[in-house]
UniProtKB/TrEMBL annotation:
PANTHER family, per database record: HTH-TYPE TRANSCRIPTIONAL REGULATOR (PTHR46797), METHYLPHOSPHONATE SYNTHASE (PTHR46797:SF1)
Gene3D superfamilies, A to Z: lambda repressor-like DNA-binding domains
Protein name: Helix-turn-helix transcriptional regulator
Domain named HTH cro/C1-type: residues: 11-65
One Pfam family this sequence matches: HTH_3
SUPFAM superfamilies: lambda repressor-like DNA-binding domains
Protein keywords: DNA-binding
GO cellular component terms, A-Z: cytosol
Top-level taxon of origin: Bacteria
Gene Ontology molecular function: any one: DNA-binding transcription factor activity
Amino acid sequence: MSIEVIFGQQLRKIREERKLSQEELALRSKLDRTYISLLERGKRRPTLNTIFALAAQLDIAPSEIVRIVETIFRKNS
């Protein structure tokens, strides 16, 4: 499984845990809703700025998102 897919799965999981729609997360993070959708489907690679913007709105440290993705990626490699 690619890092992009794992990131997208975790982004969706965290967003849903916070009870946010893609639209609401997009508005809060000043990103396009379709971009959020593409990230969640593993179709785009987030920039560091994007990870920080999303993390701020999801009330999670950017490093925690990266740690989760890294842990899952290592298990699947």
